[in-house]
Amino acid sequence: MIMSNKKPFIAGNWKMSKTIPEAVELVRELNEASSELTEAEIVVIPPFTALNDVKNTLPGSSIQIGAQNFFWEEKGAYTGEISAPMLKDAGCAYVVIGHSERRQYFGETNETVNKKIKASLAHELLPIMCIGESFEEKEKGKTINKIETQITEGFEGLEKKEISQIIIAYEPIWAIGTGLTATPNQAEDVHRFIRNKLAENYGNETGSCAIILYGGSVKPANSYSLLKEEDINGALVGGASLNSESFIEIIKEAIKAYKEK
Ligand code: PGA
Predict the structure, then answer these.
(1) CB contact at 8 A, 99 and 128
(2) Per-residue confidence (pLDDT) for residue 2, from 0 to 100
(3) Domain limits at 182?
(4) Ligand 1 nearest atom to the CA of residue 15, by list position
(5) Average pLDDT over every residue of 68-97
(6) Widest distance between CA atoms in the chain
(7) Is 215 within 8 Å of 182 (Cβ atoms)?
(8) Is residue 2 part of a domain?
(9) Which domain CATH number covers 237?
């Protein structure tokens, strides 16, 4: 699949929220609005239990589905885990890898992120790789350093062709679920660094075509100004994606910003 950042890419990460009926209702509302939103790539990322019903609610829809996590082995005695082929089977096109909550509560590291990226690409599941610094790291001026390490170690052993299939989500940990957002300038500085780094290591085309998302308290009121920045191609939205109205509003604002840049 060839990736393009010609349209804003807006993904809703529902985290551990929504029963199956709630998930179906939300996605039905989004689907009803989707004909007005064709100028954006829209992805919903429900909990595993709702994947199949969400997929069945979206036949022929342009809204795509992602999963929040998986394990890198294909199958076997790994109680409690879910593999990439299983996610494909459930209708997923994308998978989130290395979200800061996975790193914080479930011991994920740059090394496990690297294994998961390789396994997802091997099964044609597009990875949305999350990176970002903590509040302390930001205060100590270590943001760029942290981002650079996460990218270098997360991409270890990958070829240019593979790198161009990875969506990067910059999510400052201090902005996730806190109501604090990086200012558009702060976010743009990091996004530009990421794009330049990709260009330097994997060529200009990889850098310029990369899809780099911002995440952390994205809401209708700030999505326009964030998406207006040159190197911000979309958003990974948590809390505000749990309600169809606010998620649709974010997508509309993103489309507007993209047209004007
Ligand atoms: P939030 O979450 O929008 O609720 O801050 C973002 C995320 O964790 O992806």
Answers:
(1) no
(2) 53
(3) 9-259
(4) 8
(5) 98
(6) 51
(7) no
(8) no
(9) 3.20.20.70
